[in-house]
Amino acid sequence: MRSNNVLGFVFAGTLDDKIPELSASRTTASIPVGGKYRLIDFVLSNMSNSGINNVGIVAKSNFLSLMDHVGSGSAYDLSKRRSNLTILPPYGGKTFSNYVETIYNMHGYIENSREEYVLITPGNIVTNFDYSTVFDFHSKNDADITLVYKKWVVPSGYEHPVTIDADKNGKVEQIFIKPDTGCEEVNHFCGTVLIKKSLLMEEIRNALSLNQLDIKRILQNAVGRLKVYAYENKGYCAAISSINDYFEFNMDLMKKEVRDELFNPKRPIYTKVRDDAPSKYGLTSSVKNSIIAQGCVIDGEVENCVLSKGVYVGEGAKISNCIVMQDTKIGCNTNLNYIIIDKDVTIKDDRSLMGFDSYPIYIAKKSVV
Amino acid sequence: MFPKQEVVAMLLAGGQGSRLGVLTKKLAKPAVPFGGKYRIIDFPLSNCVNSGIEAVGILTQYQPLILNEYIGNGQPWDLDGMHSGVNCLSPYQAVDGADWYSGTANAIYQNINYIERYDPEYVVILSGDHIYKMDYNKMLEFHKDKNAACTIAVIDVPLEEASRFGILNTYENGEIYEFDEKPEHPKSTNASMGIYIFSWKELKKYLTEDDAKEASSHDFGKDVLPAMLNAGERMFAYPFEGYWKDVGTIDSLWEANMDLLDPNVTLDLKDIYSRNPMMPPHYVSSEANIQNSLVADGCNVYGNLEFSILFAGVTIGKNATVNSSIIMPGAVIEDGAVVQYAIVAENTVIGKNAVVGEKPENAEDKDNWGITVIGANTTIADNTVVKANQMIDSETEVTGNEK
């Protein structure tokens, strides 16, 4: 494969603080989405499907669920003689407080890998994307650095978004940090970068010697001095930066065109499997416009919802516009609207809970309502 | 050198299953899809793992490709140990020639080497065409308690059905004194489930003796078990309580699937393992109606579904109706089509407004009513009618109302 000279380097904890509810017990990359996935499944599947065989995941904190989910990496075909997945937690009393220090502290891992390039990406991006197209673009332009961007209105959780101005060939002319973008569509750089490992480490060492700890500034300073190019991800993409983004993305899955693109059978999205039986619809069930994972038992009414593995919906329950994570039990004659319900929650019989489109209510893991 | 295993299981999976017709044209019976995401063999394999049996030999002969591919390294069933696990054992060529497996006993006889590597005390013989959940450990305890040479699991069947089964007549303590294969006037209702535990030393002796007999058909039921009984070996019937169904016919396969939808049936799918397809969760549209059905990952349901089972990646089009049917992986039921009391095999397309199968109460010829079966990779053209009790071959195209 074309990209097997590329090391994958994933930041699992991107924007942890922007989604405090969902990342209370886990890092951003292991937030459950789309009924049976975790956010990191998309990045890891894309890497595996693009021929990237060696992937390191930087896990800053709260990474137990991440480690449990990705395991050895075999679900993504990343646990073979010629492929590998490594979780990189902080060590030796060092903290991973910013990207520059983190990358520096991981220099041993990065420099020891046999690949020549490194693709750095955050773990909160949901897309089905062939990274080898970035590699080809990078090689064709003889670029030093290639930034992947998405043309859209910047998602609400990005407080200091990076936007790019590039010429028609993709050569970056200017990088802006925290511009006043409002509701305009801009070329938003969400953190995916392709660079030669040797150049990365050189830039990081130089930056540290100048006490420059902001990776965005380093990129900004590279424009003009190095050949910096920008590559557009033209496909469907979501960057989960807030609970509203999270809600919207899950609801986007009701659209056929989104599902067809995201779950392209030629580039499957892999995940850790669980042995759930097919979902069982009872005689009193009524399900409309919903995404349902396996292992569910549905006896109630469900509309515009995403139900994860092993969810139970009791008779007479009416749930609409809800995202329900795995193994949650929703009792009989309940009425729920615009609720995000975390794992292993019990909603007892006859309860009513209402959120709103722009303000979905969140119910924490293992709660009993 | 292999670490010793107390028990080795041998799973007979080589039969054609000709009574399943087009469903087993390109695959062995144990590989026939069942229950929305499983294949029949998942049941005995999961039972083995859940009973702590770590070495399983699968005897394959008829159309083994899909079965071999499905079993693979055995990882979904935890049967991928370093020194144990699952192996598909096909007939082979040796210095003194090559032989197909001429009978169930011969299949085991030809694989004595495989069994001896583990130096087992007991061998469990299973068949790959039954749906049930069973702890073989309990049966093994019973076998040890009775100090038996052979223990056969039996299930209590209604007296009027007993003449369809192999009946075991026993003394009060469970010791078998007579085999009665499909008796006209059954003396008991203990039907053999095709699950045997043998003490390996005795089994090896009788297999070797049986192989030397020219007239033998080398079958457990017909030759080896009667020979052991005649020789006065201690043989016991182990009574099993719970769900058990032989799915060797179209009707019983359909019934066993429908049993999964019946709240009064005790079979559940917990702890049955299978290979999982890498597909997203299924989608149910605003126009869809689903009642009392099982739906697997990757399906897209735009139509009406009642009393049915959808395997992974099935599409049900708008205004299509699927009732009391089993739709296997990747099949497409196009808009407006009606599928009733049918089994539609993998990747088959039922065209727009086509009608497949009939409700028993609506059939013209009620005496000849039966489940309709459409083979794999077949196309039923738009507006075509396929009546009850028809079996359409795989990889064909059916147009017009000729059937």
Helix content of chain B: 10-25%
Q: What structural class is derived from the secondary structure elements of chain A?
A: alpha/beta
Q: What is the fourth-level CATH superfamily of the largest domain in chain A? A: Spore Coat Polysaccharide Biosynthesis Protein SpsA, Chain A
Biggest protein-protein contact in the assembly: A-B, 36 and 36 residues
Task: Provide the CATH architecture of the largest domain in chain A.
Answer: Alpha-Beta Complex
Note poorly predicted spans of chain A. none
What's the number of extended β-strand segments of chain A?
28
Could you give the order of strands across the largest sheet of chain B?
A: 5-4-1-8-13-10-14
Name the overall outline of chain A.
elongated
- CATH class category label of the largest domain in chain A: Alpha Beta
Nearest-angstrom radius of gyration of chain B? 22 Å
Set down the secondary structure blueprint.
The complex is a heterodimer of chains A (369) and B (403).
Chain A: E1 6-11, E2 32-33, E3 37-38, H1 40-49, E4 54-58, H2 64-70, E5 84-88, H3 99-105, H4 107-112, E6 117-122, E7 125-127, H5 131-140, E8 145-152, E9 162-166, E10 172-177, E11 186-196, H6 197-209, H7 215-222, E12 228-232, E13 237-239, H8 243-252, H9 256-262, E14 279-281, E15 286-288, E16 290-292, E17 297-298, E18 301-303, E19 306-307, E20 312-313, E21 318-320, E22 323-324, E23 329-330, E24 335-337, E25 339-341, E26 346-347, E27 352-354, E28 361-363
Parallel strand pairs in A: 1-4, 1-6, 4-5, 8-12, 14-17, 15-18, 16-19, 17-20, 18-21, 19-22, 20-23, 21-24, 22-25, 23-26, 24-27, 25-28
Antiparallel strand pairs in A: 2-3, 6-11, 7-13, 8-11, 9-10, 9-11
Helix pairs in contact in A: 3-6
Chain B: E1 7-12, E2 33-34, E3 38-39, H1 42-50, E4 55-59, H2 65-71, E5 85-89, E6 93-94, E7 97-98, H3 104-109, H4 112-116, E8 122-127, E9 130-132, H5 136-145, E10 150-156, E11 166-170, E12 176-181, E13 190-199, H6 200-212, H7 220-230, E14 235-240, E15 244-246, H8 250-259, E16 282-284, E17 289-291, E18 293-295, E19 300-301, E20 304-306, E21 309-310, E22 315-316, E23 321-323, E24 326-327, E25 332-333, E26 338-340, E27 342-344, E28 349-350, E29 355-356, E30 372-374, E31 379-380, E32 385-386, E33 391-392, E34 397-398
